[in-house]
Amino acid sequence: KEFKGTCTEGTVINGVQYYSNKVTADGFKPNSTYYYQVKLNGEWQQAQEYKTGDPDNFSFMFVGDPQIGSSYKQKNAESNGKKLGNDLAARNDSYNWNVTLNKAMEQHPEIDFLVSPGDQVSVKGNEDAKDLKEQEDQYSGYLSASVLRNLPQAVAIGNHDCSSASYQNHFNNPNPFLEESTPTPAGNGYFYSYGNALFIVINANNYNAADHKALIEKAIKENLNAKWRIVVMHQDIYGSGLDHSDSDGIILRTQLTPIFDANDIDVVLQGHDHSYARTYQLTSDGQAHDEFLEYKQDQGGFNHDNFDERFEKDGVFRAYYKSQNLCYNIADKSQGTVVNPEGVFYLTSNSATGSKFYNLIPEQQDYVAARSQNWRPSYSVINITKDSFTVNTYDVETGEAIDSSYTIVKK
Question: Would you indicate the residue range of the signal peptide (predicted)?
Protein backbone atom coordinates (compact mmCIF):
# COMPACT_ATOMS: atom_id res chain seq x y z
CA LYS A 1 0.00 0.00 0.00
CA GLU A 2 1.33 3.44 -0.87
CA PHE A 3 0.78 6.35 1.52
CA LYS A 4 0.96 9.91 0.22
CA GLY A 5 2.69 12.39 2.49
CA THR A 6 2.99 16.16 2.72
CA CYS A 7 5.95 18.41 2.04
CA THR A 8 5.95 21.85 3.64
CA GLU A 9 8.52 24.60 3.79
CA GLY A 10 10.31 24.43 7.10
CA THR A 11 12.99 26.67 8.53
CA VAL A 12 15.25 28.85 6.38
CA ILE A 13 18.83 28.66 7.69
CA ASN A 14 21.56 30.86 6.24
CA GLY A 15 19.46 31.38 3.14
CA VAL A 16 18.88 27.65 2.63
CA GLN A 17 15.28 26.42 2.59
CA TYR A 18 14.70 23.24 4.62
CA TYR A 19 11.61 21.11 3.98
CA SER A 20 9.51 19.05 6.34
CA ASN A 21 8.19 15.77 4.91
CA LYS A 22 5.55 13.81 6.80
CA VAL A 23 3.35 10.80 6.06
CA THR A 24 0.67 9.06 8.12
CA ALA A 25 0.23 5.30 7.73
CA ASP A 26 -2.62 3.21 9.12
CA GLY A 27 -4.17 -0.25 8.95
CA PHE A 28 -1.59 -2.04 11.09
CA LYS A 29 -2.56 -5.20 13.01
CA PRO A 30 -1.12 -6.37 16.36
CA ASN A 31 1.75 -8.87 16.55
CA SER A 32 2.61 -8.46 12.87
CA THR A 33 5.71 -7.71 10.81
CA TYR A 34 5.65 -5.05 8.11
CA TYR A 35 8.17 -3.55 5.73
CA TYR A 36 8.21 0.02 4.51
CA GLN A 37 10.14 2.03 1.95
CA VAL A 38 10.64 5.75 1.44
CA LYS A 39 10.73 7.28 -2.03
CA LEU A 40 13.52 9.88 -2.18
CA ASN A 41 14.12 11.91 -5.36
CA GLY A 42 11.95 9.46 -7.28
CA GLU A 43 13.83 6.35 -6.07
CA TRP A 44 12.58 3.81 -3.55
CA GLN A 45 15.07 3.37 -0.71
CA GLN A 46 16.01 0.13 1.02
CA ALA A 47 13.10 -1.57 2.80
CA GLN A 48 12.96 -1.32 6.59
CA GLU A 49 11.21 -3.68 9.01
CA TYR A 50 8.59 -2.65 11.53
CA LYS A 51 6.97 -5.01 14.06
CA THR A 52 3.78 -4.20 15.92
CA GLY A 53 3.32 -5.29 19.51
CA ASP A 54 0.64 -6.90 21.67
CA PRO A 55 -1.78 -4.22 22.92
CA ASP A 56 -2.66 -6.42 25.92
CA ASN A 57 0.96 -6.80 27.03
CA PHE A 58 3.41 -4.22 25.70
CA SER A 59 6.62 -2.50 26.79
CA PHE A 60 8.14 0.84 25.97
CA MET A 61 11.51 2.41 26.62
CA PHE A 62 11.48 5.62 28.68
CA VAL A 63 14.57 7.77 28.22
CA GLY A 64 15.58 11.09 29.73
CA ASP A 65 16.98 14.22 28.06
CA PRO A 66 19.15 12.87 25.22
CA GLN A 67 20.08 16.54 24.68
CA ILE A 68 22.43 16.00 21.76
CA GLY A 69 25.20 18.60 21.89
CA SER A 70 24.97 19.32 25.62
CA SER A 71 28.49 18.02 26.30
CA TYR A 72 30.03 21.06 24.58
CA LYS A 73 31.42 22.36 27.90
CA GLN A 74 33.31 19.15 28.61
CA LYS A 75 37.00 18.60 27.94
CA ASN A 76 38.85 15.51 26.72
CA ALA A 77 42.07 14.51 25.01
CA GLU A 78 40.55 15.06 21.58
CA SER A 79 39.81 18.70 22.41
CA ASN A 80 43.37 19.31 23.70
CA GLY A 81 42.12 20.41 27.08
CA LYS A 82 39.68 22.93 25.65
CA LYS A 83 35.89 22.76 25.64
CA LEU A 84 34.59 20.36 23.01
CA GLY A 85 32.70 22.86 20.88
CA ASN A 86 29.32 22.26 19.29
CA ASP A 87 30.43 20.04 16.40
CA LEU A 88 32.38 17.54 18.49
CA ALA A 89 29.75 17.59 21.22
CA ALA A 90 26.95 16.82 18.74
CA ARG A 91 28.98 14.01 17.21
CA ASN A 92 29.94 12.44 20.55
CA ASP A 93 26.45 12.70 22.05
CA SER A 94 24.90 11.24 18.89
CA TYR A 95 27.29 8.32 19.13
CA ASN A 96 26.36 7.72 22.79
CA TRP A 97 22.67 8.01 21.94
CA ASN A 98 23.14 5.30 19.32
CA VAL A 99 24.94 3.12 21.89
CA THR A 100 22.10 3.54 24.39
CA LEU A 101 19.41 2.56 21.88
CA ASN A 102 21.37 -0.43 20.59
CA LYS A 103 22.15 -1.76 24.06
CA ALA A 104 18.60 -1.25 25.28
CA MET A 105 17.18 -3.21 22.35
CA GLU A 106 19.77 -5.96 22.81
CA GLN A 107 19.02 -6.19 26.52
CA HIS A 108 15.22 -5.85 26.11
CA PRO A 109 14.04 -6.86 22.63
CA GLU A 110 10.46 -6.78 23.92
CA ILE A 111 10.45 -2.95 23.69
CA ASP A 112 7.70 -1.78 21.31
CA PHE A 113 8.28 1.99 21.19
CA LEU A 114 10.20 4.84 22.79
CA VAL A 115 9.00 7.72 24.97
CA SER A 116 11.09 10.81 25.74
CA PRO A 117 10.04 13.66 28.07
CA GLY A 118 11.87 16.21 25.94
CA ASP A 119 15.17 17.97 25.31
CA GLN A 120 16.12 15.90 22.32
CA VAL A 121 18.66 18.63 21.46
CA SER A 122 20.68 21.20 23.39
CA VAL A 123 20.78 24.45 21.38
CA LYS A 124 17.50 26.28 21.87
CA GLY A 125 17.48 27.79 18.37
CA ASN A 126 15.96 31.16 19.21
CA GLU A 127 15.49 31.97 15.50
CA ASP A 128 19.18 32.93 15.29
CA ALA A 129 20.78 31.54 12.11
CA LYS A 130 23.81 30.09 13.89
CA ASP A 131 21.70 28.52 16.63
CA LEU A 132 19.22 27.12 14.13
CA LYS A 133 21.99 25.48 12.11
CA GLU A 134 23.50 23.92 15.23
CA GLN A 135 20.06 22.78 16.36
CA GLU A 136 19.41 21.22 12.95
CA ASP A 137 22.73 19.35 13.19
CA GLN A 138 21.72 18.09 16.63
CA TYR A 139 18.32 16.88 15.42
CA SER A 140 20.13 15.10 12.59
CA GLY A 141 22.36 13.40 15.15
CA TYR A 142 19.40 12.45 17.34
CA LEU A 143 17.44 10.98 14.42
CA SER A 144 20.43 9.28 12.77
CA ALA A 145 20.36 6.31 15.17
CA SER A 146 19.61 3.22 13.06
CA VAL A 147 17.29 1.80 15.76
CA LEU A 148 14.82 4.59 15.03
CA ARG A 149 14.16 3.17 11.56
CA ASN A 150 12.36 0.30 13.29
CA LEU A 151 11.28 1.77 16.63
CA PRO A 152 8.41 4.28 16.82
CA GLN A 153 8.89 7.21 19.17
CA ALA A 154 6.70 9.74 20.95
CA VAL A 155 8.61 12.68 22.37
CA ALA A 156 7.62 15.71 24.43
CA ILE A 157 8.77 19.30 23.99
CA GLY A 158 11.58 20.21 26.40
CA ASN A 159 12.78 23.66 27.35
CA HIS A 160 15.65 23.22 24.86
CA ASP A 161 13.19 22.22 22.11
CA CYS A 162 10.51 24.83 22.69
CA SER A 163 11.97 28.05 21.27
CA SER A 164 11.90 27.26 17.55
CA ALA A 165 9.78 25.43 14.99
CA SER A 166 12.46 22.76 14.48
CA TYR A 167 10.68 20.31 16.80
CA GLN A 168 7.45 20.34 14.81
CA ASN A 169 9.43 20.15 11.56
CA HIS A 170 10.89 16.80 12.65
CA PHE A 171 8.02 15.03 14.43
CA ASN A 172 4.59 14.05 13.11
CA ASN A 173 2.52 13.93 16.29
CA PRO A 174 -1.04 12.57 16.37
CA ASN A 175 -3.96 14.57 17.77
CA PRO A 176 -2.12 17.87 18.27
CA PHE A 177 -3.96 20.19 20.65
CA LEU A 178 -4.30 23.14 18.31
CA GLU A 179 -6.72 24.83 20.73
CA GLU A 180 -3.76 25.64 23.01
CA SER A 181 -4.03 29.37 23.73
CA THR A 182 -0.35 30.10 24.45
CA PRO A 183 1.73 27.51 22.59
CA THR A 184 5.48 27.79 22.17
CA PRO A 185 7.09 28.02 18.70
CA ALA A 186 7.80 24.28 18.86
CA GLY A 187 4.10 23.41 18.70
CA ASN A 188 1.47 21.87 20.91
CA GLY A 189 0.74 19.07 23.30
CA TYR A 190 -0.89 15.93 21.88
CA PHE A 191 -2.24 12.52 22.85
CA TYR A 192 -2.33 8.93 21.59
CA SER A 193 -3.39 5.50 22.81
CA TYR A 194 -1.71 2.10 22.80
CA GLY A 195 -3.71 -0.88 24.01
CA ASN A 196 -5.61 0.16 27.12
CA ALA A 197 -3.26 3.06 27.90
CA LEU A 198 -3.85 6.72 27.06
CA PHE A 199 -0.72 8.89 26.77
CA ILE A 200 -1.20 12.65 27.15
CA VAL A 201 1.90 14.66 26.21
CA ILE A 202 1.76 18.22 27.49
CA ASN A 203 4.03 21.11 26.55
CA ALA A 204 4.86 22.27 30.08
CA ASN A 205 7.00 25.11 28.72
CA ASN A 206 3.62 26.76 28.30
CA TYR A 207 2.88 27.85 31.88
CA ASN A 208 -0.85 28.25 31.19
CA ALA A 209 -2.28 25.35 33.20
CA ALA A 210 -5.74 25.90 31.68
CA ASP A 211 -4.36 24.72 28.33
CA HIS A 212 -3.11 21.49 29.87
CA LYS A 213 -6.39 20.95 31.70
CA ALA A 214 -8.29 21.32 28.44
CA LEU A 215 -5.96 18.90 26.62
CA ILE A 216 -6.24 16.27 29.37
CA GLU A 217 -10.02 16.53 29.46
CA LYS A 218 -10.28 16.29 25.67
CA ALA A 219 -7.99 13.25 25.51
CA ILE A 220 -9.95 11.46 28.22
CA LYS A 221 -13.30 12.29 26.64
CA GLU A 222 -12.14 10.68 23.39
CA ASN A 223 -10.69 7.64 25.20
CA LEU A 224 -13.16 6.90 27.98
CA ASN A 225 -12.34 3.18 28.03
CA ALA A 226 -8.60 3.65 28.62
CA LYS A 227 -7.65 1.92 31.85
CA TRP A 228 -4.29 3.66 32.27
CA ARG A 229 -3.93 7.44 32.03
CA ILE A 230 -0.32 8.55 31.62
CA VAL A 231 0.95 12.12 31.33
CA VAL A 232 4.34 12.81 29.74
CA MET A 233 5.94 16.21 30.34
CA HIS A 234 9.41 17.70 30.51
CA GLN A 235 9.63 19.62 33.80
CA ASP A 236 9.83 17.38 36.89
CA ILE A 237 7.36 18.65 39.44
CA TYR A 238 8.36 15.82 41.81
CA GLY A 239 12.02 15.16 41.04
CA SER A 240 15.12 15.22 43.24
CA GLY A 241 17.65 17.06 41.10
CA LEU A 242 19.53 20.04 42.45
CA ASP A 243 18.95 22.31 39.47
CA HIS A 244 15.19 22.22 38.94
CA SER A 245 13.14 20.08 41.34
CA ASP A 246 12.84 22.84 43.96
CA SER A 247 12.57 25.76 41.53
CA ASP A 248 10.54 25.74 38.32
CA GLY A 249 9.13 22.35 39.29
CA ILE A 250 7.33 23.93 42.24
CA ILE A 251 5.77 26.59 40.05
CA LEU A 252 4.08 23.92 37.96
CA ARG A 253 3.40 21.60 40.90
CA THR A 254 0.75 23.75 42.53
CA GLN A 255 -1.04 24.33 39.23
CA LEU A 256 -0.95 20.86 37.66
CA THR A 257 -1.40 18.39 40.52
CA PRO A 258 -5.07 19.30 41.19
CA ILE A 259 -5.73 18.76 37.46
CA PHE A 260 -4.04 15.34 37.57
CA ASP A 261 -6.05 14.35 40.65
CA ALA A 262 -9.37 15.51 39.20
CA ASN A 263 -8.80 13.48 36.03
CA ASP A 264 -7.58 10.29 37.72
CA ILE A 265 -4.13 10.35 36.15
CA ASP A 266 -2.17 7.24 37.16
CA VAL A 267 1.40 8.08 36.17
CA VAL A 268 3.43 11.18 35.22
CA LEU A 269 6.69 10.63 33.32
CA GLN A 270 9.19 13.52 33.63
CA GLY A 271 12.73 14.58 32.71
CA HIS A 272 14.57 17.92 33.01
CA ASP A 273 16.72 17.24 36.09
CA HIS A 274 19.20 14.74 34.58
CA SER A 275 18.94 12.51 37.64
CA TYR A 276 16.72 9.55 38.51
CA ALA A 277 13.88 9.73 41.03
CA ARG A 278 10.80 7.65 41.79
CA THR A 279 8.06 8.91 44.11
CA TYR A 280 5.52 7.38 46.41
CA GLN A 281 1.85 7.66 45.43
CA LEU A 282 1.04 11.38 45.80
CA THR A 283 -2.03 13.59 45.82
CA SER A 284 -2.37 17.36 45.88
CA ASP A 285 -3.31 18.86 49.23
CA GLY A 286 -6.60 20.23 47.93
CA GLN A 287 -5.70 23.74 49.05
CA ALA A 288 -5.74 26.89 46.95
CA HIS A 289 -2.28 28.26 46.19
CA ASP A 290 -1.28 31.58 44.72
CA GLU A 291 -0.06 31.43 41.17
CA PHE A 292 3.51 32.39 40.45
CA LEU A 293 4.29 36.01 39.64
CA GLU A 294 6.41 37.46 36.87
CA TYR A 295 8.25 40.72 37.44
CA LYS A 296 11.16 42.77 36.15
CA GLN A 297 14.44 42.80 37.99
CA ASP A 298 13.99 46.42 39.05
CA GLN A 299 10.29 46.08 39.84
CA GLY A 300 9.14 46.59 43.44
CA GLY A 301 5.77 46.07 45.07
CA PHE A 302 6.44 43.08 47.29
CA ASN A 303 9.09 41.69 49.63
CA HIS A 304 11.40 39.46 47.57
CA ASP A 305 12.54 37.70 50.75
CA ASN A 306 9.22 35.88 50.91
CA PHE A 307 9.78 34.26 47.54
CA ASP A 308 12.06 31.77 45.85
CA GLU A 309 13.29 33.24 42.59
CA ARG A 310 14.36 31.78 39.27
CA PHE A 311 16.02 33.98 36.67
CA GLU A 312 14.52 33.69 33.22
CA LYS A 313 16.01 36.12 30.69
CA ASP A 314 16.07 39.83 29.91
CA GLY A 315 15.73 40.65 33.59
CA VAL A 316 12.45 38.72 34.04
CA PHE A 317 12.00 36.53 37.11
CA ARG A 318 9.34 33.99 38.01
CA ALA A 319 8.51 34.05 41.72
CA TYR A 320 6.46 31.73 43.93
CA TYR A 321 5.81 31.32 47.64
CA LYS A 322 8.25 29.03 49.42
CA SER A 323 5.40 27.33 51.26
CA GLN A 324 4.07 26.00 47.96
CA ASN A 325 6.77 23.33 48.11
CA LEU A 326 4.50 21.52 50.59
CA CYS A 327 1.38 21.30 48.46
CA TYR A 328 1.09 17.49 48.43
CA ASN A 329 0.06 14.50 50.51
CA ILE A 330 1.74 11.09 50.47
CA ALA A 331 -1.18 8.75 49.79
CA ASP A 332 0.64 5.39 49.87
CA LYS A 333 4.24 4.51 50.82
CA SER A 334 3.98 0.83 49.87
CA GLN A 335 6.77 -0.52 47.71
CA GLY A 336 7.18 -3.45 45.33
CA THR A 337 3.58 -4.00 44.21
CA VAL A 338 0.69 -1.72 45.17
CA VAL A 339 -2.92 -2.65 44.47
CA ASN A 340 -5.54 -0.04 43.62
CA PRO A 341 -3.55 2.78 45.23
CA GLU A 342 -4.68 6.34 45.65
CA GLY A 343 -2.74 9.17 44.11
CA VAL A 344 -0.35 9.63 41.21
CA PHE A 345 3.04 8.01 40.62
CA TYR A 346 5.83 10.28 39.33
CA LEU A 347 9.00 9.07 37.59
CA THR A 348 11.94 11.30 36.64
CA SER A 349 14.51 9.93 34.21
CA ASN A 350 18.26 10.50 34.18
CA SER A 351 20.27 11.31 31.05
CA ALA A 352 20.09 8.60 28.39
CA THR A 353 23.29 9.78 26.69
CA GLY A 354 25.50 11.11 29.48
CA SER A 355 25.70 14.47 27.72
CA LYS A 356 24.84 16.24 30.99
CA PHE A 357 24.25 15.14 34.59
CA TYR A 358 23.03 17.12 37.60
CA ASN A 359 23.66 16.52 41.30
CA LEU A 360 20.87 15.38 43.57
CA ILE A 361 19.69 17.86 46.20
CA PRO A 362 21.55 17.24 49.49
CA GLU A 363 18.54 16.03 51.46
CA GLN A 364 16.15 13.53 49.86
CA GLN A 365 12.58 14.83 49.84
CA ASP A 366 9.99 12.90 51.83
CA TYR A 367 7.95 12.25 48.67
CA VAL A 368 10.85 10.42 46.96
CA ALA A 369 10.86 6.64 47.39
CA ALA A 370 14.12 6.07 45.51
CA ARG A 371 16.67 8.15 43.65
CA SER A 372 20.02 7.73 41.95
CA GLN A 373 22.88 9.64 40.37
CA ASN A 374 25.70 7.29 39.35
CA TRP A 375 26.90 9.55 36.51
CA ARG A 376 26.13 6.89 33.89
CA PRO A 377 23.42 6.80 31.19
CA SER A 378 20.29 4.85 32.09
CA TYR A 379 16.85 4.01 30.71
CA SER A 380 13.60 2.52 32.00
CA VAL A 381 11.48 -0.27 30.57
CA ILE A 382 7.79 0.09 31.37
CA ASN A 383 5.47 -2.87 30.84
CA ILE A 384 1.69 -2.45 30.72
CA THR A 385 -0.85 -5.27 30.77
CA LYS A 386 -4.61 -5.25 31.27
CA ASP A 387 -4.14 -4.99 35.05
CA SER A 388 -0.58 -3.84 35.75
CA PHE A 389 1.95 -1.07 35.19
CA THR A 390 5.56 -2.06 35.96
CA VAL A 391 8.73 0.02 35.74
CA ASN A 392 12.34 -1.19 35.87
CA THR A 393 15.35 1.06 35.32
CA TYR A 394 18.74 -0.08 34.00
CA ASP A 395 22.33 1.06 33.62
CA VAL A 396 23.05 1.26 29.88
CA GLU A 397 26.56 -0.18 29.99
CA THR A 398 25.99 -3.14 32.31
CA GLY A 399 22.29 -3.77 31.78
CA GLU A 400 21.91 -4.11 35.56
CA ALA A 401 18.96 -2.61 37.44
CA ILE A 402 19.69 0.61 39.33
CA ASP A 403 16.45 0.48 41.35
CA SER A 404 13.89 -2.01 42.61
CA SER A 405 10.95 -2.90 40.41
CA TYR A 406 7.72 -1.00 41.06
CA THR A 407 4.28 -2.28 40.00
CA ILE A 408 0.84 -0.72 40.18
CA VAL A 409 -2.05 -3.18 39.93
CA LYS A 410 -5.54 -1.94 39.10
CA LYS A 411 -8.42 -4.32 39.55
Answer: none
Cα(342)–Cα(66) distance, integer angstroms: 32
> CB burial class (10 A; 0-12, 13-18, 19+) of residue 203?
buried
Full 3-state SS string of 246-282: CCHHHHHHHHHHHHHHHCCCCEEEECCCCCEEEECEE
pTM of the model: 0.91
Phi, psi of 34 (to 5 degrees): -125, 160
For 102-150, what is each residue's pLDDT tens digit? 999 999 999 999 999 999 999 886 667 788 889 999 999 999 999 999 9
Instruction: Quote the crossing angle between the two packed helices 209-221 and 248-262, to the nearest 10°.
Output: 30
Query: What are the E-state strand segments in 121-166?
Result: 153-155
Q: Under 8 Å CB-to-CB from 347, ≥6 apart: which residues?
A: 62, 267, 268, 269, 270, 277, 278, 279, 380, 391
- Are 93 and 352 in contact, with CB atoms under 8 Å apart? no
| Helix, strand, coil percent content, the chain, rounded in steps of 5 | 20, 35, 45
Question: Are 201 and 190 in contact, with CB atoms under 8 Å apart?
Answer: yes
What domains does the chain contain, in order, with CATH numbers?
56-289+327-409 (3.60.21.10)
Containing 365, the helix (H) or strand (E) segment is none
Residue of 269, 257, 189 whose CA lies nearest to 228: 269
For residue 363, the 8-state DSSP code is: S
Distance CA 231, CA 346 (A): 10
Segment 338-396, tens digit of pLDDT: 999 999 999 999 999 999 999 999 989 999 999 999 999 999 999 999 999 999 999 99
E strands present in 70-126: 111-116
**What is the H or E stretch that residue 10 is in?**
strand 6-13
Q: Is 330 exposed, middle or buried (0-12, 13-18, 19+ CB in 10 A)?
A: middle
